[in-house]
Amino acid sequence: MTVVDQKTFYVLVIENSEEDFQMMRRELNKRDFKVKCFLVDSVSSMEEALEIRSWDLFIAQSSSPDFCNSQILTLWRREGRGVPFIVVTDDIERDLTLKLIDCGVCDVVAKENLNSLVPAMERWLANHAIQEEFQEKIKLFDDTLMLMQEALFKLQTLNDARKLADQLALICPEPEKRVFGLRELIVNAIEHGNLGITYADKTVLNEKNIWDKEVERRLALPENADKYVVVKIERTEDEIRFLIKDQGKGFDWKSIIDADPFGSYKSHGYGIAMAKSGSFDRLEYIGSGNEVLAVVLLD
Q1: pTM score
Q2: For residue 14, which of 56, 59, 54 has the smallest C-alpha distance?
Q3: Which of 141, 221, 222, 278 is the most exposed place for a label (fewest CB within 10 A)?
Q4: Residue 124 is part of which domain span?
């Protein structure tokens, strides 16, 4: 079960056009999860909405480079409690997209490609849920782990992957930035590397909401009983190096690592590009792709 299956999500749409609002609302309600959309058309009505309740997602339509300096984004940064913000534009223009991302917007979706709105919503709601859960772990962190200079871990399951990623993120500066990337890389090593779940396989499994069950089924197969993912950590004065290696055949990592993580209509396949751009200072695949080096600078 994914995060978007577990509750009703409240989405605040900042939009002047009732027609465009209804178009976005219809798109968001095409999936089975519960979404309640509310429209505001000004900064003052947005302020009132923020006082009424907590929101799970903000969406606004704009194609202006000055949107970063708008009162809407200023209010969201001040009162939005870290909730994801998605901008819908008339067309994806890379310079504008990068500028919006730099000023805090999570994703940019083209109006002509609104079928990408739901996948964008899903991934950022999931990422936000991880961040909120992780904040509690930061509070309880035992900083004796900061004394670790080198370590080696072997694991097989998704649960172990997520728990280990959370602990490793805590030894990094800005741990909330690192946790998503570490989870992504270690989980990928299990599902795609050791278990051989392809991109096409995962698309079908996601649509049927049986991905976790299929991973457990494959883990129980005799041919996978002795397959492990190895995670090696090395800490120097300048950086922390995470070397993650699976026992698979590798993959075409060159076409994925340079992919644009934004504006995708796909339900998955964006994680590596996002990890590269948002979680690590350097990310390098080695050889056939069954080994990856992720680096976090300590400066």
Answers
A1: 0.66
A2: 59
A3: 222
A4: 3-129
